[in-house]
Amino acid sequence: MAVFRACGLPPLVQHALALYQGSRRVLGRHTTDALVRHTFFKQFCGGECDQGIKPVLSYLHQNGIGPIINYAAEDDVSSAQAGADMAELACDHACNIFRKSIHDAAHVEGRGFMAIKVSALGPPNMLRRASALLAERGIAGMWPGMGEAVRPHSHPLLMLQDCLSPEDGNALNKATARVVAMAQTAASLGNVRMLVDAEHIYMQPAIDAITLEAQRVVNKGQAVVLNTYQCYLKSTPERLAGDMSLATRQGWTFGGKLVRGAYLAHEVAHAAAQGLPRPVHDSLEDTHACYDRCVAQLMQHVAEGNGEEMMVASHNQRSIETAVALMRRLGMAPSDSGVYFGQLYGMSDHLSFTLGPNGYQAFKVIPYGPIETTLPYLIRRAQENGDIFKKSGVGKELGMIRAELARRVRASLNPSALRPQNSSMAAAAA
After folding, report:
1. Helix (H) or strand (E) segment spanning residue 115
2. pTM (two decimals)
3. C-alpha–C-alpha distance, residues 221 and 230, integer Å
4. Is 207 among the domain residues?
């Protein structure tokens, strides 16, 4: 409970990385990392290596929940100033880790997911410059009103090769080759799906171009690669529609993951600094409405039964219940409809542990990696889910924890008290 309460304190979350670095200087690395390992890390991460997450995977499987294996890494242009040779070595190292995650996901019983970050597979500065070129030529959905422009241009990577410097062009080719090769590995294993994470808006157009190429190559009759759509962006509905249309025209199978968004404060500040229109919705209510609209838009497409797949990645109970109700209306079976539900490990267990046992395809994102690598990831997750921690979400989580503790105390006196508790989600999933 203390971890959830701490995540609900904005000053602590805002300055968490500086506090961690300061603690390392004062208390030392060993003491600081031990403290983090037994608090925040234990709550939200599966382990420090691929072997360390196996007990977590086993526990989730016992409860009808699958894993999304995610090597946690955070990259931003401001932190990516290494030389070209070092950058390529780092990308190759990340590629090897992601490949290992693909094979780990293949050993999961049933469907296995893994997630990649393209900024770990290509220099972020190159991705930013490539994205700027796409935006300048109207071949990117970075800002409101530009979402449709990218889609008639079926192969933006070809245009980029004519415009980038030789160094950037070479780096783009290598990044694309890494992503496509991993997608081909996932496709060859049969039961693995590869999620491509959304990133900063100034890198996203290039990430989209690379992802679309991987989808064109491997999504043949099944959605092996799923791109991520951030619904706090005003351009997302038309970008989503454009990508579905592009898949139909090019003859590949669409797959998408819907999230609300991960970089709100950063995107607003970046747009203001560049004199660009505000790319995100003006209110949380508008974001909720956009999310539910995109879920309905994509689910109608998936319900046609042509192999398309989607992930409803949300901690919002109302959105989950709305999606479940829509599945019912469309006659979609919980266990094999191509609709997946995703939540972060350590959060919204009342959703995941209701969906999974009731036959829905529920998954938990299982981040893993060394503490110094995963901590920036955890801090960003805490920042992006600030509303959950500050408002009703954390209250609901804490209330459920207190109720469960009380139930276990009662059970020590009366074993019949150990009965599953009903919930509105159980009713929704029934």
Report:
1. strand 112-116
2. 0.83
3. 25
4. yes
